[in-house]
Amino acid sequence: MMQHNGKLLDGVSDDGLSRLAYVNAIEAKRQRQVAMARRDRPEFDRLARWVVASCKAGMEEAIRGSLEQQEIECWCPLERHRRPPKRGQKAVEIQRAVFRGYLFVQVIPDNEAFVGLMLASKLRGLMGKDGKPHLMPESLMRQLMLSAKKAERKHMDGRDVPPMPDVLGKQVTIRSGPFADFVVTVRKVLSKRGQMVVDVPLFGGMSEITMGIDFISD
How many Å apart are CA 100 and CA 35, to the nearest integer? Predict the structure, then answer.
């Protein structure tokens, strides 16, 4: 019988205690590293910037929730999607990420915060170049957030859907919003929702974005 921290431990060997101490030390180190990515870090309000993190598509909301629980600032704009009704059932409205496979995270942009962020989540990586995460321009982030709020307010039901032009597979120009003047290709037309899915050059590659017909022009 051995005594540890004032308590008797039955059947615990010295090796067992050593392994336990090692595991505790590793976890304590991980928590210190994660703390470097949290919103309560000193000077956060003055120094923090938005970065783009990649994740498995469909895991955006779960990862956002996990990060928020750890007090890490995260933004994941959502869109409403109405699934067609099944036989004998009503249509179901769900929410899903606008940027499939991506999240926006606000941290102080240094290696300590980036390491802590990756340890705190199931993110795949941070978008950037030459090993340096890309810092989103503040003006673009404000436009994205404003656009997301406007889209939420303008959410339409089936009675309000405008007539849809024949744009599938064509290149169109976005005329308003944060991606104004971008020339994009229409990949899907969501006629019942008055929306379409387009490829937008973003995060160093092409990203699928869903937007209303009123955002584009031929």
Answer: 27
Question: What is the tens place of the pLDDT at every residue in 155-172?
Answer: 544 445 556 677 888 888
- Cβ contact 64:43 at 8 Å: no
Q: Are strands 125-126 and 49-54 parallel, antiparallel or unpaired?
A: antiparallel
pTM: 0.66
Interatomic CA distance for residues 216 and 147, integer angstroms: 14
Question: How sure is the predictor about 15, in pLDDT bands with cuts at 50, 70 and 90?
Answer: confident
Rounded to a whole number of angstroms, the CA Rg of the chain reads 23
**Cα-Cα-Cα-Cα dihedral of 153, 63, 69, 23, to 10°?**
180
Residue type, 58: G
* Residue type present at position 18: S
